[in-house]
């Protein structure tokens, strides 16, 4: 028999590999579905690529690659028998051969036992060889099988390789000198002290200076002022401001030139008024809570509808999801037509490694959630057995999208960690990934996209400027002063302070109740524009901004701004309830554009201010900044012009100049530096050194029209003719078609579905996500979705009909635009 097996495997020996260091063995989840060794058909692991496939997908991989040898893994899960005393009878576990596989269940694993089975399967004849079979198999095959069986999980393998575990304690941490200069860092509103950067900011732990970090090739970062400050002062340690959490922060040592650990980070931050000692404590179950947990107890009970006998539901669209924000349900409902509708085509044309393909994993997740394959009701025999035992513990299996989460979180500082995910940030991150992976094709994210018209008015001259920007979510403020139970809140606050002074137990908390109309009103109120530069005055002035909707999306996402920072930097959630309506009419928030009697601010940019010692001299170009831009692939001469025309103000400013001027015909032509003898342009051509903006419409507006299928040149003409108003530009295109394209435009109007709507048809609430916990860094999310006229609660793998949907306690709300009919 040994000879027979050896001869059988000889033709396939070149395709059998032994996993090497760095190889990931996917033996717990199919690349195209959520089948696992626990599934009825088990899992097939390719002995060459080490990818896992369910029974209905393994044939596809065989046809595409020609790989014939697979290891079939099957785990049999059984409930332990119960003795007369009610305790589980210990039974022997047979053949635990493939390790590092956890039970794919949320209930008590001690009540179950399992038996593992493995065998080699040779396609296309499905010849099976049971394992272990050391004596009869060739040595190479035996070694390969043993390595696959004992390989760690593809997801567990990433954890010990995390770079965070290699970070060493800084030698400056213990003896760090901190200046007693009275600096206190506010919880928000930071910007670099040497430029206007408001991101990638670092706090120097010696003198409290807030400065920007270095500039990155992707256009993010800063101008390197934090490093310059170290070179001037030799103050070695800095902490990145937006990374401070109860678990620590990102600390960098300029002297050691690497990320470091600071065991005294809490003490060093408190020197500047950032109190880390009062951050939330972690409880045994992994959730965070604070010392005064009473306000959150009722919130957890209400949102999860605890104490109610909720009826479990099964089938298509009722699949539980674990370890991922439940906003995936709402997203995939909107993306269904793009991914799940093209499931077979996406799977058939997927790359050789489908685990790293975004479209494949989106289609896989959509099918897993919406097919009902992983949400099946219990068998009749199981129900009878439960009734006999007076038990009702059957729960659907649900899905655990570890492969999807690993892909979409790759490279993201928050989502790639084990820290709590913010649902709003994850939603925008996912929309951004969909857009980036839809280049050259229809963009499913268009259903969330809308235009915001921003009206900025100079308070001194009363002149205005209208601009438009793209957005995907309304963020509504929560004005506590508009609470309908204001007197009750004031009385509670007085009792709380009295109890605190007398060291007594705090009173029963009172939740603020705020009308939804007050939140909308706060959204529409004018807000001050920081550092506003008036082109009419050619100087900084006071300015106010108001926002309105220039267009309306198919799906309107509304976020309630419940989270804030305390004066001690402790992030907290406001305990409030909003009477969110089932139907939403945003007619009064529709943009109007330039009104009669309004005058626009001149189309002038702020002048480039050069240091006094360089005036009247030829500007020296920062060649280092030029090379940074050139390494990104831009023409060298264009990079030189960008650095020159932005006055050597850093690579980021030059990068923005490149993006704004890429379409110009002389973009890559050589730069002609003016000499001191050049007369220059007449003074009348330029007002106080201001630079004309030109007549080119905003690229975002052009992109929106061209994404609808209109020619770029025609889109630019339409925007120019309508003062960059998108709604009027769309009307202008249909009333002024180019002669050679008139027929095409007419056909496009009928055939193309334009997701950006310029009329208000009303919205109906169909889903909301609620958060339980003290801050975004802790707690738990629950999703409610309205399906077939009834509300359904999605709480991890538990999916039930909702009895009392807590619509007033939501964090993110989803509305669908009503049809005109």
UniProtKB/TrEMBL annotation:
<dbReference type="InterPro" id="IPR001607">
    <property type="entry name" value="Znf_UBP"/>
</dbReference>
<feature type="domain" description="UBA">
    <location>
        <begin position="620"/>
        <end position="661"/>
    </location>
</feature>
<dbReference type="Pfam" id="PF02148">
    <property type="entry name" value="zf-UBP"/>
</dbReference>
<dbReference type="GO" id="GO:0008270">
    <property type="term" value="F:zinc ion binding"/>
</dbReference>
<dbReference type="InterPro" id="IPR038765">
    <property type="entry name" value="Papain-like_cys_pep_sf"/>
</dbReference>
<dbReference type="Pfam" id="PF00443">
    <property type="entry name" value="UCH"/>
</dbReference>
<feature type="binding site">
    <location>
        <position position="195"/>
    </location>
    <ligand>
        <name>Zn(2+)</name>
    </ligand>
</feature>
<keyword id="KW-0479">Metal-binding</keyword>
<dbReference type="Pfam" id="PF00627">
    <property type="entry name" value="UBA"/>
</dbReference>
<feature type="binding site">
    <location>
        <position position="225"/>
    </location>
    <ligand>
        <name>Zn(2+)</name>
    </ligand>
</feature>
<keyword id="KW-0645">Protease</keyword>
<dbReference type="InterPro" id="IPR028889">
    <property type="entry name" value="USP"/>
</dbReference>
<keyword id="KW-0072">Autophagy</keyword>
<keyword id="KW-0833">Ubl conjugation pathway</keyword>
<feature type="domain" description="USP">
    <location>
        <begin position="319"/>
        <end position="818"/>
    </location>
</feature>
<keyword id="KW-0862">Zinc</keyword>
<comment type="similarity">
    <text>Belongs to the peptidase C19 family.</text>
</comment>
<dbReference type="GO" id="GO:0016579">
    <property type="term" value="P:protein deubiquitination"/>
</dbReference>
<dbReference type="InterPro" id="IPR018200">
    <property type="entry name" value="USP_CS"/>
</dbReference>
<dbReference type="Pfam" id="PF17807">
    <property type="entry name" value="zf-UBP_var"/>
</dbReference>
<dbReference type="InterPro" id="IPR013083">
    <property type="entry name" value="Znf_RING/FYVE/PHD"/>
</dbReference>
<dbReference type="GO" id="GO:0004843">
    <property type="term" value="F:cysteine-type deubiquitinase activity"/>
</dbReference>
<dbReference type="InterPro" id="IPR041432">
    <property type="entry name" value="UBP13_Znf-UBP_var"/>
</dbReference>
<feature type="region of interest" description="Disordered">
    <location>
        <begin position="677"/>
        <end position="696"/>
    </location>
</feature>
<feature type="domain" description="UBA">
    <location>
        <begin position="696"/>
        <end position="736"/>
    </location>
</feature>
<dbReference type="InterPro" id="IPR009060">
    <property type="entry name" value="UBA-like_sf"/>
</dbReference>
<keyword id="KW-0378">Hydrolase</keyword>
<feature type="domain" description="UBP-type">
    <location>
        <begin position="168"/>
        <end position="276"/>
    </location>
</feature>
<keyword id="KW-0863">Zinc-finger</keyword>
<protein>
    <recommendedName>
        <fullName>Ubiquitin carboxyl-terminal hydrolase</fullName>
        <ecNumber>3.4.19.12</ecNumber>
    </recommendedName>
</protein>
<dbReference type="GO" id="GO:0006914">
    <property type="term" value="P:autophagy"/>
</dbReference>
<keyword id="KW-0677">Repeat</keyword>
<dbReference type="InterPro" id="IPR015940">
    <property type="entry name" value="UBA"/>
</dbReference>
<dbReference type="InterPro" id="IPR001394">
    <property type="entry name" value="Peptidase_C19_UCH"/>
</dbReference>
<feature type="binding site">
    <location>
        <position position="212"/>
    </location>
    <ligand>
        <name>Zn(2+)</name>
    </ligand>
</feature>
<feature type="binding site">
    <location>
        <position position="192"/>
    </location>
    <ligand>
        <name>Zn(2+)</name>
    </ligand>
</feature>
<dbReference type="InterPro" id="IPR050185">
    <property type="entry name" value="Ub_carboxyl-term_hydrolase"/>
</dbReference>
<dbReference type="InterPro" id="IPR016652">
    <property type="entry name" value="Ubiquitinyl_hydrolase"/>
</dbReference>
<keyword id="KW-0788">Thiol protease</keyword>
<dbReference type="GO" id="GO:0006508">
    <property type="term" value="P:proteolysis"/>
</dbReference>
